[in-house]
Amino acid sequence: MSTLIFRLRHVPEDEAQAIRELLDEQNIDWYETNAGNWGIAMPGIWVEDDEQAPQARYLIGQYQQERTLSQRELNAQLEAQGQNTTLKQRLLKHPFRSLGIVLFCAFILYVSIHPFMQMISFSKQ
């Protein structure tokens, strides 16, 4: 029976390619599924042999630990060079998107709280 060993949703392409190469180097038989036409299926990397799944998960875990360290180092270098984007820079780069998100959150909050506020004001009468 096939075993899902790595979910590919929201994974950068370079990381997914590195996982594929890692599995190939270790001679682990795998196959990949995509999200489908509507993007609702589970994109992932699967191992056909259940006995290879623990080894594949271990290798992927080791790779992800190494990647985490290298990405943190890269982030620290960018921060030291002043090239990291801050929240303020992102908000200023897309002001209408940011305002839209804030207004949408306020609307959801209003719709969520308004019935209870009506009940409170009704019970005081």
- N→C terminal distance: 65 Å
Instruction: Supply Rg.
Output: 23 Å
In total, the number of strands is 3
H/E element order = EHEEHHH
CATH superfamily of the largest domain: Hypothetical protein rpa1041
Structural class: mainly alpha
The side-by-side strand order for the widest beta sheet comes to 1-3-2
Detail the poorly predicted runs. Answer: none
Percent helix, as a range, is 55-70%
Taking all residues together, what is the mean pLDDT?
92
Tell me, briefly, the overall form: extended
- Measured by DSSP, the beta-strand proportion falls in 5-15%
Question: Helix count?
Answer: 4
CATH T-level fold name of the largest domain = Alpha-Beta Plaits
Number of domains: 2
What is the correct CATH architecture of the largest domain? 2-Layer Sandwich
Taking the sheet with the most strands, its summary is:
3 strands, antiparallel
CATH class annotation of the largest domain: Alpha Beta
Write the layout of secondary structure elements.
Layout: E1 3-7, H1 13-25, E2 30-33, E3 44-47, H2 53-81, H3 87-93, H4 95-123
Antiparallel strand pairs: 1-3, 2-3
Short description:
The protein has helices spanning 13-25, 53-81, 87-93, 95-123, and strands at 3-7, 30-33, 44-47. It is mainly alpha-helical and 125 residues long.
Task: Tell me what you see in this structure.
- There is one protein chain.
- The chain is mainly alpha-helical and 125 residues long.
- It has 2 domains: 1-84, 2-Layer Sandwich (Alpha-Beta Plaits); 86-125.
- Helix content is 62%, strand content 10%.
- The protein has 4 helices and 3 strands.
- The chain has helices at 13-25, 53-81, 87-93, 95-123, and strands spanning 3-7, 30-33, 44-47.
- Strands 1-3-2 form a 3-stranded antiparallel beta sheet, with helices on one face.
- The longest helix has 29 residues, at 53-81.
- It is extended, with a radius of gyration of 23 Å.
- The model has no long low-confidence stretch (mean pLDDT 92).
